[in-house]
Fold this sequence. Notes:
This protein is an alpha/beta fold. The protein has a single domain (7-227), classed as P-loop containing nucleotide triphosphate hydrolases (Rossmann fold, 3-Layer(aba) Sandwich). It is built from six helices and ten strands; from the N terminus they run βββαββαβαααβαβββ. A six-stranded mixed sheet has the order 6-7-8-3-9-10, sandwiched between helices. Strand 4 (64-69) and strand 5 form a beta hairpin. Helix 3 (107-117) packs across helix 4 (122-135) and helix 3 runs parallel beside helix 5. The longest helix is centred in the C-terminal third of the chain and has 18 residues, at 181-198. Adenosine-5'-triphosphate is lined by residues 16, 18, 23, 25, 43, 45-51.
Amino acid sequence: MSGAPVLSVRELSRHYATGGGMVRALDGVSLDVAAGELVGVFGPSGSGKSTFLMLAGLLENPTSGEVWLAGERVSHAGADLDALRETRRKRIGFVFQKANLIPFLSAVENVALSLELADVAPADARAHGRRLLATLDLAHRADNLPAKLSGGEQQRVAVARALANAPPLILADEPTAALDSVRGRQVMEIFRRIAGTRGAAVLVITHDPRSTDLFDRIVHFEDGRMVPD
Ligand SMILES: Nc1ncnc2c1ncn2[C@@H]1O[C@H](COP(=O)(O)OP(=O)(O)OP(=O)(O)O)[C@@H](O)[C@H]1O
Ligand SMILES: [Mg+2]
């Protein structure tokens, strides 16, 4: 592959027409994230961080602008999001504030599911799921249902699920917001490790200033725009 960034967002905007006028949720944001890079996204509530993640993750279309993955344009104003489902599944791992695990599946089954959706044989998917959980210090919890896990453990399972297909891009929206500072730090250190050892491009939205030392780069959002530090 060329030296193109894993994620390249160009002049991305998302405007909403509301009763009170036009809301510029995102207003011309450009950002590249390279393989192995951990980027932190900070900014006040309502500044457009989640909107940015939804667009960069191909979950919503922009009003204007483009999203490129590894040198290929994948999203723009008229893109067909349904047609991008495979791209999302294979190339992007998502982690949100809530783990959103499937309650009647064990930890390892939750991780294996995303592999089975990508046509991996169930036995292989489970074996890989166990290995992944072990790397996140969850081997002893692999067969538990989510309700038997602590919040931090559930969130680590969600991280394992996001990593299952070894996506080159990981997008996380306040993944530690529901965790105490120790658990939150652990999850952030996992993202640091994923970028460092797997060479994934990782973008994490967070409000937590205690994690700033882990990032390669930090960007700030304000009123739908990226502002200088
Ligand atoms: N569907 C929508 N219709 C109208 N306005 C919207 C819509 N979705 C988001 N917005 C507005 O866009 C702006 C950006 O929202 P966004 O959720 O991206 O902010 P955020 O930075 O993630 O905030 P937080 O830190 O609270 O999660 C906000 O003013 C929000 O009200
Ligand atoms: Mg948000």
